[in-house]
Design brief:
This protein is of the alpha/beta class. Helices cover 42% and strands 18% of the residues. Strands 3-2-1-4-5-6-7 form a 7-stranded parallel β-sheet, with helices on both faces. This is Oxidoreductase.
Length: 243
């Protein structure tokens, strides 16, 4: 069943990792997908790799001017956006005593300011009844040493999902959050066996998530199958935060 047939989707931060897995799933389900990334070679490689109708656009997700240009290109080609994924983000550890102003500013600039201002640019081109997924983290409700700032940025997105759902209710636009636990991306593959073991230990299902499993959750929330789900958080964590 092609659940996104005829839909136009934009994945901000879709050139690698979980974002690319979401692009692949949306394209497989029939959507025309636009993906963004900062590195031209990576964007081109991602758009070429995916089977389906996929267009790669080079843009810095934290810069409103870049996103405005992306929106203009999508609008010129199709006149609308049906589904939006705000996935771009970053993580850097720092204890409270090590958290410099630059550390705090950079994480909030990319992880919070970026999605907020990007959505402001995009929402006018979204159809009434459209769907938005923001990429959160189960860290948004956990006290993880060294990751206080990162966790706070993800908690901010969780809060925005509630507010935007209320603000956009007259247009029927649904805003939800997908919050993964440790996920076996290429970035995670570069970690040591000891780090991987420590991350897996508290997961009841005994392994990390696969990117395609996170993508399946995003697809569900973007599709009509989730037509009565709004302002919610869907954790894809193998039970790590649930039990």
């Amino acid at each position: 069943m092609a659940r996104m047939m005829g839909k136009v989707a934009l994945v901000v931060g879709g050139a690698s990792g979980i974002g690319l897995a979401i692009v692949e799933r949306l394209a497989a389900e029939g959507a025309t997908v636009f993906l963004t990334g900062r590195q031209a070679e990576q964007v081109e490689a991602a758009a070429t790799k995916v089977v389906g109708t996929v267009h790669g656009l080079v843009a810095d997700a934290s810069e409103p001017r870049d996103i405005a240009q992306v929106v203009a290109e999508v609008r010129e080609a199709h006149g609308r956006i049906d589904a939006l994924v705000l996935n771009a983000g970053m993580s850097q550890p720092a204890l409270l005593t090590e958290a410099t102003p630059e550390h705090v500013d950079e994480l909030f600039h990319v992880n919070v300011r970026g999605p907020v201002l990007a959505f402001r640019e995009i929402v006018g081109t979204m159809i009434d009844g459209g769907s938005v997924v923001m990429m959160g983290s189960i860290a948004d409700a956990a006290g993880i040493p060294q990751y206080g700032t990162y966790s706070a940025t993800k908690a901010a997105l969780r809060s925005y999902a509630r507010t935007w759902t209320a603000e956009l209710a007259p247009r029927g636009i649904r805003v939800n959050v997908v919050s993964p636990g440790p996920t076996d991306t290429a970035m995670m593959a570069a970690t040591t066996d000891e780090v991987r073991a420590a991350l897996v230990a508290p997961i009841p299902l005994g392994r990390m998530a696969r990117p395609e499993e996170v993508a399946a959750a995003a697809l569900f929330l973007l599709s009509e199958e989730a037509s009565f789900i709004a302002g919610a958080e869907l954790c894809v964590d193998g039970g790590m935060r649930q039990v």
